[in-house]
Design brief:
- The chain folds into two domains: 147 residues, Lysozyme, CATH 1.10.530.40; 76 residues, no CATH class.
- The chain is 59% helix and 9% strand.
- The chain is built from eleven helices and six strands.
- Helix 6 runs antiparallel to helix 7.
- It starts with a helix and ends in a 5-residue tail after the last helix.
Length: 239
Amino acid sequence: MKTSEKGIKLIKEFEGFRNKAYLCSAGVWTIGYGSTRYSPKRKVKQGDQISLEEAEELLANDLIKFETAVNKFVTVKINQNQFDALVCFIYNIGEGAFKSSTLLKKLKLKDFTGTADEFLRWNKAPSPSTGKLRALPGLTRRRTAERKLFLSKAGASSSAKTETKINNKSKKASFDEKFSLDELKKGLIRRENNSINNKVKNLILKQAQIKFGSKSKELAEFTAYLDGLTDGLMLSKKV
């Protein structure tokens, strides 16, 4: 099986696009849509930068690896939504952790409800400073979304497709809304430490992808503009 557009969208939603290397919650240098390597022998390092197109290529390559893991280790019949949820899950925790997980053991026993509940246990990550595991709100939201997808019926009805179109129109409308510079500053900068609020920035980028298309020249120009704007705001003393 291959990941559907729904599964890819879920991964992008939680990973977010970053054109500059950053340290993830586990203290690993990451770039694009959560990629940590360009190739088996080349890791992402501090200072790296990539384009949206390069991030899409890394995502596609990463998906092949994690799709292969699901197809290899899952020995029971699953539907497309379950497959997508598992790929999104492994994309985040890694092939090794999935292989030895209780989640996989329950899945092999066809305990689908128990399998779904196991997603929620994987909401912790080690602190870069102490190494101790702590629950993260972002991981909790991701595990909840993966569990919901895993339990949902495969296939989309015509009404569901219509609802998706309506939601897309709504997202486009929200992107077109005008914000004052003051509001933009509050959204992009945290008052506590004057650092960019990546969650809000990624939300703006996602809405831009919907408006311009994921591989358009306009999106690339907008991304560069947003990076320049946020870098400029970082230098501002009045937030």
